[in-house]
Amino acid sequence: MNISEKAKQQVESCRFCWMCRHVCPIGNADGQERNNARARALMISYVLRGTEKLEDAADNIYECTLCGACTNNCKTGWDPKIFISEVRTELVLSGKAPSYIKALLKRYFDKKTIFNGEPADIYGRSEGKDTLFHFGLSAVYNDQETVKKALSLLKNVSTNKEAEDSGYILYFLTGKTKETVEQAEKCAKELNKYKEVVVYNPVELSFMLHQFKEWGIEIKAKLVSFNEKLLELKLPVKKGNKEYTLQDNYAATRELDDLESGRKLIELVGVNKEMLLIHKEANMAGNLIMNEYMHDKMMDVARNRWNNAINMGCKTIVTTNPDEHVMLKKTAPEGYRVITIEEMLIENM
Amino acid sequence: MNEFLFTQVLTELEDAVGRENCSTRVIDKVTHSVDYFWLSRMWADRGREMPQADFVVSPKDAKEVSKVLKIANYYKIPVTTWGGGGGTQGGAIPVCGGILLDTKRMNQIYDFNEKGMYIECGAGAIYKHIEWAANERGYSTMHFPSSLTCSTVGGFLAHRGIGVVSTKYGKIDDMVLQMEVVLPNGDIIYTSSAPKHAAGPDLNQIFIGSEGTLGIITKAQIRIYVQPEVRRFRGFLFKNMTAAFDASRELLQIFKPSVMRLYDEAETASLIKKIVGVAKPGAFMNIAYEGKKELVDVEEKILLDIFNKYGAEDLGSEYGEKWWDEKITFFYPGHMMDLPQMFGTMDTIAPYDKIEKIYWEMKKAIETNFPNIKFIAHFSHWYEWGCMIYDRFICDNPPQDPVEAMRLHNQVWNVGVRTAIANGGVVNDHHGVGIKLGRLMKEQYGPAMQVFEGLKKQLDPNGIMNPFKLGL
Question: What is the tens place of the pLDDT at every residue in A144-174?
Fold first, then answer.
């Protein structure tokens, strides 16, 4: 198996360590031993030693959300995402990826998306030629109505269908392949037509800031998170005493070190009520790519996060990531609701 | 087993737990074949396959466990129970193949009972999750072992685990009220509704520590405690361990700190220097005391007076706080012993009249018989009458050949544990027995072993439950 020395180092370090078991959202949802960093590393170490076959690891490698909870938890600084992503590349290139992943990739290359249906009707808008509002494929295909609401808050911004696919979906499914990098380059070319890009989804923003840079793809446009933009806008909101609980997005907190912008926005309109497991320790609540091939487990992941909210009496969850918004909405218990950060602002204007 | 019969059993197990919760996939068999036992890790590290189960089942409750055990008993198939796989004694390895019963789907919280001060939960719940649930309501389970994040409630009960605040709050066997247990014949039983009674021997204590050899714990009521108003730390440096034992024994007749950890000079000079930063020679001791502030103020005065009397240097609170913050860091890769080193913890326990002698005798026995092996220790769980030794051996260059490595490993354990037993210690304090120490159980108990063997024969006449573990 052809993975880098860096990836092998993570495998050898993680294969006998159980310390991050408690934070894996998938392992917590299904209770399966195979769903933690040590299990994946153990299996891959056996593959590297020639004791087991790569194809027997394939399904399990695609059960990982790449949310980085294990990475964040590791006191030594190991990052299991590195070997998982490289093994995905190996699986795809060797034709040993699971059939449902192959089917999703076929759909992607046929339709330019893995999601069913049509994107949100937001394109053709070029009010502000200097600023682009980038949503990403997850949001425009799965959360159409909230995307429109988000757009309604930003004046003088453009939308650009050609820029929406950053390559993140390909990266998630195949790691760093030629096709992934080419898609990232196409996206960067579109982004660079603007002076500023407001990025709706923190996962996409992190991908652009970190992976594009690692791959030598230059982004001249200034990338701004949606939260940052909302704070800058000084919207005419009223402060009340409603309680809101932020669902910290894993990419925002762990990868972008943004622990406060969502809370500052909540403080503008109401009272910040925390649940357990916040900031970088937050439980992730959904991944729409994985929802395409393991829907039931994703529903359980979201339900687990609701349990944290219920236990702390948090009635209204506020999200900053479309995947988590959609999945929490699908699983909201009676008497509880989930809204996006822009919906929270709008209901207090 | 022939393919036809294998498939027959498989379909019956699928019927018991649901097809999606019964696996014969390679990934599930491999990941349940290596636990935290050094020998299993070494075997895997050398590219050898550990024994694997034939079927991996994940029941959701006692009823499903019962169905699995009835099938296993009928076909006389071994059943090994796996919680988190974080055990160091090989207790969860399916050495005879058969059925591997993973408990982690039994992770529900059934009752958070603030009036009764317990959480009733499935035995497959990861202990850290139970701690989080307690924290969400302002309580704590006060069970903080280094494996808190990776092990299950049932796993800790099965091997009689312990956490770092045990001196004040107790061992896992002090922390449980009622338990639900599935017997090998499939009967679901409940232990008494309260752990202190005069209704015969305590059923809890028969199954706690039985390591899946007598039945499977499926549910437990775990005690919760109010969070302390203050938790204070104090580090001390004793000139020698004798003074530390005397000071601690005297202290424990007056009050119970939560954390008490005494490190021998070798461990003070290695791990403590590296992680906590104490660079002076001597025996470092860390004490934590906690509760209502008024009481803690008094306890602090008593602690300082007694330790001062025995010549301890007061190092202040900084080292203790750092140790608390880093208490789990010690166990991450890169911070503790790891392959290719060979290592093990031969923890034992004894009253104060024997404990120091056991330490010196074990140290002498290991260092004399195995000149290339280091011996370090700390004493981390204390009682009014005695304490335990967490003594570790470290071999930097074990044999590359896995058979030779196993041979040396088992020789070291034989020498260390037999020395402990000969001097009044016990086979193990809180890691359990597993396959690692099973052979030494008869040496520990002598004819008393027939009590365990009688229970085993009565409850598990077909000998299907976790074979070759616990010496049964």
Answer: 999 999 999 998 899 999 999 999 999 999 9
Measured in Å, how far apart are chain B's first and last C-alpha atoms?
A: 24
For chain A, the first-to-last Cα distance in angstroms comes to 56
Q: Are B27 and B94 part of one and the same domain?
A: yes
Task: Determine whether the interchain pair B137/A311 forms a contact, defined as Cβ–Cβ distance below 8 Å.
Answer: yes
> Coil, strand or helix: which one is B192?
coil
In this structure, the strands spanning A316-319 and A243-246 are parallel
Which of A31, A311, A312 minimises the CB distance to B104? A31
Q: Per the omega criterion (within 30 degrees of 0), is the bond before B78 cis?
A: no
Instruction: State the architecture of A236-346 in CATH terms.
Output: 3-Layer(aba) Sandwich (3.40)
Domain boundary among B102, B124, B154: B102
Name all contacts of A333-336 with Cβ < 8 Å and 24+ positions apart.
A333/A306, A336/A306, A336/A309, A336/A310
Q: Which fold has domain A131-230?
A: Rossmann fold (3.40.50)
B322 — contact with chain A (CB < 8 Å)?
no
Tens of pLDDT, residue by residue over A238-285, are 999 999 999 999 999 999 999 999 999 999 999 999 999 999 999 999
Out of B30, B82, B133, the one facing A42 most closely (by C-beta) is B30
Backbone φ and ψ of B28, nearest 5°:
-75, -35
Contacts of B150 in chain A (CB under 8 A): 18-19, 21-22
CA distance A138 to A129: 24
Number of folded domains that form chain B: 4
Collect all residues of chain A within an 8 Å Cβ-Cβ radius of residue B104.
27, 31-33
Does A296 touch chain B if contact means CB atoms closer than 8 Å?
A: no
Of the pLDDT bands very low, low, confident and very high (cuts 50, 70, 90), residue A334 is very high
The domain limits of chain A are 5-97, 131-230, 236-346
Asked which of B159, B193, B226 is the last residue of a domain, the reply is B226
Structure confidence at residue B330 (pLDDT): 79
